[in-house]
Amino acid sequence: MIAQLSGADTAGLLTPAGAADALAGVLRAGLDPEGCPQRTAVPVPGGELLLMPAAAGAYAGVKIAGVAPGNALLGLPRITGSYLLLDGPTLRPLALLDGAALTALRTPAVSALALRHLAPRDRPLALVLFGAGPQAYGHLEAVRAERELAGVTVVARNPERAERLVAHARALGLAARTGTPEDVSGADVVLCCTTARTPLFDGRLVRPGATVVAVGSHEPDARETDTALVRRSAVYVESRAAALREAGDLLIPEAEGAIGPGHITGTLADLVAGRRPAPGRPSGPRLFKSVGMAWEDLAVAVALFQAAGADRAT
């Protein structure tokens, strides 16, 4: 009988740090993100349907996700969907997970794994967080698990939602306030968790050694960071192939002639394996651009399935 794991069922089973450990584990086990199947995107009247299959080790799975921009006006989540987890050798269905809850955990976990290797460890860090939606909350929890924070500055279009996130951060014991895009000039870490299609801030303001993580877009014509930042930065991605297919943050500067296809410094797998560590004495910022990949959903879904005490023999 297939297990049914709702968002409530999986809440609290796995922290972002635990999910990041699961991602690192599959990379160390030899999974190559460059060979991961492409995301299939289908335009529909309500937005976009995404199909994301993957297989690794003893498991396979597929996420069917909906991206519905108009849902915000209805008080509904922008991201919807389900994840079907399968036994790898037989492709027998094992579990059906809430796709939105899985995405809300997986994306911060990917960022947490990147920050684990890119962000400084020698001092409390000043964080500037763009966005005030579910991903912003998840990323705040994820970065707290990886680094001590000196303070949090929230930059968001909606002042009320920004103040709610600030209040949440203060309840966690953090010094927090709202701010403006210019606050990136004092940041050690900048997290971009928005639906923006154009740059959020002037990349010339980001200081050398700071780490910028951009997760909000997987479309070639949308970006959260500008050409100036990309040109100055050591750039890391989940997969070169996926980034050069979907990451507008990189594709737009390349189309402008500002960077070449070899501008990417390394991948998440390189960082985990120690092949392309972050520069010891950086001359510029570090940028991690995430587009979200199916292997990540699979790794976190398996970790949730196992944490729930489910069994492949079910």
UniProtKB/TrEMBL annotation:
This is Ornithine cyclodeaminase. Pfam families: OCD_Mu_crystall (PF02423). It comes from the Bacteria. Gene3D superfamilies: NAD(P)-binding Rossmann-like Domain, ornithine cyclodeaminase, domain 1.
